[in-house]
Amino acid sequence: AGCAAERAYCLAKLAEKKGDYIGASNEYENAGDIFEDDNLELSNKSRRESIRCSEIAMKAPLNNDEEYELLMRISRLLNVLGDKASSGKINAQAEELRARRATDPKVRKNGLNRAAIKFRDAGEESESARLFIDCQDYLNAAKLYCKLDNHRKFQSSMARCFVNKKMNENAAHLYSPIKESKTIWKDDAANLLNVDISEIPNINNANLDEAIKLAPNGSELHDKLKLEQIKGRGNWKTEAKLYEKQNKFDKAFELFEKHI
Fold first, then answer.
1. Angle 151-164/125-134 helices, nearest 10 degrees?
2. How far, in Å, CA of 144 to CA of 218, rounded?
């Protein structure tokens, strides 16, 4: 075993000297595997050399298969060396690479979802949330952005989640500037995310146009939002008509009294 390991180690050195870093990485890994039973120190040294050569190789132009195999090798070696967190992160990167080169949309989506889960398991929550958005898993993205205290990204992913669940009014409330909208959506959000309502953040990023777009046409909320928009534009006649539609004739009358 010792001779075979030394042979593999020498081949690795020769390949590295020629600039063949992929070949060197392969032989260093072989040496590490053979050394394992006789000399753990040399085994781990060879594995670290394999990782180093893989990282150098990845700086040059590679095809997707080569890059994927190198990432998987680094992940595998890091795991053997006991660095579970880094191994998981690299494995997730490899999964994302493979998913993004897929031509079938369903295969691509499923692959990105697997990569997102792997990033989450490796503690890379921002990367995980990014990929959950890419594969349209807005619920898991919202869970992570809630935990990360990223209010704007939580707002957008939670709104998309509400729309997917046919809860468009809640999505509109997330962007609405009117007072009643501040907390009305929180119970449903907490239920969907399976967290206590105290964990749901306050959102202070109103966008009236977005709220109007999300609110169902003909709903009371939609009318209230349109009224806010009209008030901001100073169009009192349209404002009066909306008051009439809402049976708020006293407010409509006040406007006519004021302007006529």
1. 30
2. 34
The answer to whether residues 236 and 258 touch, using CB atoms and an 8 Å cutoff, is yes
The predicted model scores a pTM of 0.82
Nearest to 187 by CA among 204, 207, 167: 167
Q: Would you give the end-to-end CA distance of the chain in angstroms?
A: 101
pLDDT by residue (tens digit) across 25-83? 999 999 999 988 788 898 999 999 999 999 999 999 998 899 999 999 999 999 999 99
Single-letter amino acid, residue 92? A
The answer to whether 215 and 221 have CB atoms below 8 angstroms apart is yes
- What is the DSSP code (8-state) at residue 162? H
| Confidence grade of residue 245 (pLDDT, cut at 50, 70, 90) | confident
212-231 pLDDT per residue, tens: 999 999 899 998 898 888 77
3-state secondary structure 63-114: CHHHHHHHHHHHHHHHHHCCCHHHHHHHHHHHHHHHHHCCCCHHHHHHHHHH
